[in-house]
Amino acid sequence: MTRLRTEPNIFDSDGFFQELLDLHRDCSKDESDALNISLILLLANHIGDREVLREAMKAAACVSLRSEREP
Amino acid sequence: MRTFETPLYPYERSPDHDAPAPARHPVVVVGAGPAGLAAAIDLARRDIPVVLLDENDRVSHGSRAICFAKRALEIFDRLGCGDEIVDHGVTWSRGKVFFRDRRIYEFDLLAEEGHRRPAFINLQQYRLEELLVRRLRDLQSEGRPVELRGGSRVTKVEPAADSVLLTVDTPEGPYRLEAEWVVACDGAGSTVRRELGLEFAGRVFEDHFLIADVVMKADFPTERWFWFDPPFNPGQSALLHKQPEGLWRIDLQLGPGVDREEEQRPENVVPRLRQMLGDDIEFEIEWISVYTFQCARIDRFRHGRVLFAGDAAHQVSPFGARGANSGLQDVDNLVWKLERVLRGGSPDSLLDSYDAERVPAADENILNSTRSTDFISPKSETSRLFRDTVLNLAETQPMARPLVNSGRLSLPHVYLDSPLQSPDTDGLPARTRPGSPAVDAPIGDGWLLARLGDHFQLLALGNCAAETGCAGVPAGIRREAPASGSSAALGIDVPDDEPGLEVVRLPAGRHPLLDERYLGDAPGALYLLRPDQHVAARFTDYDPERIASAFRRASAQETDDP
After folding, report:
1. How many angstroms separate the CA of residue A39 from the nearest CA in chain B?
2. Is residue B340 a contact partner of residue B552, using CB atoms and an 8 Å limit?
3. Which chain B residues touch A if contact means CB-CB below 8 Å?
4. Nearest CA in chain A to B399
């Protein structure tokens, strides 16, 4: 039984996505990486639930591995 | 002459050297470091004759263990030298963490109230060893059966049917000894381990560290300072920690592939230290060394009649002070078992539980110290970026501070899966569940742990403390007499029967912290405590059969599932 919410859950998703990209607009690659890590850590701490975090890591790994394999 | 240059136990010819056949001893401990000395002291206190062999004649020199955690101090209390050791040490609880040129946060490992001993003290290993040798000498003068033979190097170990033959080399040539049990505390490069051909498997770390003990008159506070990527050691880490007598421990990470000799030369070390400490601090170097380390252990700590403890059994990185602390816990776990087996009170399968309990403890220490090492020296670009981001976040976000890992300081292992432990009873606090070391608490003018001593006991609390509570716990529960002893032949005084299972009664309402730690919301409880002060079983009602069964299980006299 999965506990990670994978159905849409963000109000105004376009607005959120724009905000996320705006955050990175003036960043170098290194700055962007650091920013992403800070964001992961802050959000992970907010979630706190190790099971949810584990499922999220697994889901993220599945997606990126699949995209790697595509031609 | 400095302490570590003074011969404390000079070589003397042993009568065993001239014996026609190898002299037989119940226990020979190899190696007089902290673990070996503690083992010999504990055995001697229990009147088990013990010979402690060491290849040197003085305490160890150089930069070794400095940080002794609360559990180790409680073990020293049990061995009768806790006060001397704590009085010599420096008590600390505060620390600062620096990243590049900034102090990012401070912490206080504020010890919980109601414990006799602080979370940690710092004390040079040679000073600790000196105090342990003093304790051993005191026991000798009380007539306890302990011998410390300096200049005695074990060169050969030959397991036989019911003993182990040791060849001991001395300035006057070799002789042989027969040991019923050997406790190998002869360190990371253990001869005993090599002689038995045992693999020491694990992970070797490439990083070099420069460690310096310096004497300086500085009014730095008694704190642990840790730097990640400081200006005076770019890309690496550094540690500054206070020791007694104006001595400071400095640890500088050097990275892989360095020239050890070159790095240790004063002309290279001094400018580095000056940059770290500031130009106006005067210091004198007591000791410098460059080291690397590995995290490794032997597969099993019991090999027949040879029992491995401390660094001979397992090695960890220095981060987290888990080396000497875990060696002392090994010995704490082992000695009472050896006593029971030697006196015939338990079968020798009790010693298998030493392995079953201390191997997971070693794995826990290896896991923790490996994680610290990986945080301190990230192994990939991504892990470095994560590490640096955690450090940056930690400056303003308290949530990131638990992720900063410059060493997770040693806590005692809980023997959760031990074969000696009985199933838990619901409704009692988690921290004192079976497998845990007894948690200290103030009781009147004294302390719980001081009251417990070091034999099997039943702690009767709350309404179980009254004679009429818990259906009436009797004044003493008689243990069964041990099998008539073969160990009498070894000169051990085997009593006709062991003392009864002593009941320590502490009624509720008088010692609030004791009640909080052992009762929680329960009105009463009975705790069966082992000689090493770990909880073997606990109950909320008095059932003599279940207590007897838990005792038999905890002493390996009953191995069936209850």
Report:
1. 10
2. no
3. 385-386, 388-390, 392-393, 397, 399-400, 403
4. A45
| Backbone φ, ψ for residue B341 (5° rounding) | -70, -45
- Are B180 and B26 in contact by the 8 Å Cβ rule? The answer is yes
Q: How far is the C-alpha of B124 from the C-alpha of B137, rounded, in Å?
A: 20
Cβ distance of A37 and B400 shorter than 8 Å: no
C-alpha distances (whole Å) from B495 to each of B140, B180, B447, B481 are 22, 20, 30, 9
Q: Do B389 and A34 touch (CB under 8 A)?
A: yes
Q: What are the residue ranges spanned by the domains of chain B? A: 3-90+115-200+295-368, 430-554
Q: Do B389 and A37 touch (CB under 8 A)?
A: yes
Pairing, β B524-529 against β B457-462: antiparallel
- Collect all residues of chain A within an 8 Å Cβ-Cβ radius of residue B392: 34, 38
Name the strand (E) or helix (H) holding B50.
strand B50-53
* Residue B476 confidence class, pLDDT cut points 50, 70, 90: very low
Cβ distance B23 to B61 under 8 Å? no
Angle formed at CA B13 by CA B10 and CA B14, multiple of 5 degrees? 110
How many residues make up chain A in this entry?
71
Under the banding of pLDDT at 50, 70 and 90, the label for residue A68 is low
Could you tell me the fold of the domain covering B3-90+115-200+295-368?
A: FAD/NAD(P)-binding domain (3.50.50)
Residues 7-66 of A with CB under 8 A from B: 30, 33-34, 37-38, 41-42, 45
Q: What is the pLDDT of residues B380-418, one digit of tens each?
A: 999 999 999 999 999 999 999 999 999 888 889 999 999
Q: Which chain A residue lies closest to B389 (C-alpha atoms)? A: A34
pLDDT, average across residues B449-469: 81
Domain spanning B430-554, CATH class: alpha beta
CB-based contact B403 A33, cutoff 8 Å: no
* A45 interaction partners in chain B (CB closer than 8 Å): 399-400
pLDDT digits (tens, 9 = 90+) for A20-54: 999 999 999 999 999 999 999 999 999 999 999 99
Length of chain B: 562
Asked whether the beta carbons of residue A41 and residue B392 sit closer than 8 angstroms, the reply is no
Strand partners, B302: B307
pLDDT in tens, B531-545: 999 999 999 988 878
Q: Which residues are CB-contacts of B56 (< 8 A; sequence separation ≥ 6)?
A: B32, B150, B151
| 8 Å CB contact of A37 and B397 | no
Interchain CB distance below 8 Å, A34 and B393: no
**Contact yes or no for B388 and A34 at CB 8 A:** yes
State how far the Cα of B240 lies from the Cα of B214, in Å rounded to an integer.
10
Cβ contacts of B434 within 8 Å, gap of 6 or more: B421, B422, B423, B424, B535, B536, B537, B538
Gap between the Cα atoms of B133 and B139, Å rounded: 10
Question: With contact defined as beta carbons under 8 Å apart, do B288 and B218 qualify?
Answer: no
**Euclidean distance between CA atoms B117 and B86, whole angstroms:** 8
Q: How many CA atoms lie within 13 A of B471 on its CB side?
A: 7
